[in-house]
Design brief:
It is a single chain. This protein is α+β, with helices and mostly antiparallel strands. The protein has a domain of 67 residues. The protein is 23% helix and 19% strand. Strands 1, 2, 3, 4 and 5 form a five-stranded antiparallel beta sheet that branches. Strand 1 and strand 2 form a beta hairpin.
């Protein structure tokens, strides 16, 4: 009788352990909040767990000279619309540029020589 009780307890403990170490089924989210980068646009999309599910990080163009871009998170469906308005993809390290593209600090005047 003691042997049967021992085997029953061992069986239940094995089932409990298998549920404890089982991983979630494929497609049921990533508890680590992994990110993926699109090779076509260079934008980063986050998976579940980081608070930005299905969102893409972009550098939003401001009209400030001291801070020309701020990092925002938009729906992946709105990336093209934001890029048409001048927003850029974040760099590989996740930061935004400190200057506008083409801004070199010059006044834009050119010297011409006459005949």
């Amino acid at each position: 009788m003691k042997t049967k009780m021992f085997l029953a307890c061992l069986f239940v403990a094995g089932i409990a352990a298998s549920f404890a170490i089982a991983s979630p089924p494929p497609g049921k989210g990533n508890p680590n909040g992994a990110t993926s980068t699109s090779p076509a646009t260079g934008t980063t999309t986050t998976a579940h767990g980081n608070g930005h599910a299905g969102k893409v990080a972009l550098c939003h163009a401001t009209h400030s000279k001291s801070n020309p871009y701020v990092k925002i998170w938009v729906s992946k469906n709105r990336v093209k619309a934001h890029e048409r308005l001048g927003d850029l993809a974040v760099s590989a390290d996740g930061s935004c540029p400190k200057t506008k593209p083409g801004a070199s600090g010059t006044t834009g005047t050119t010297a011409t020589t006459g005949p």
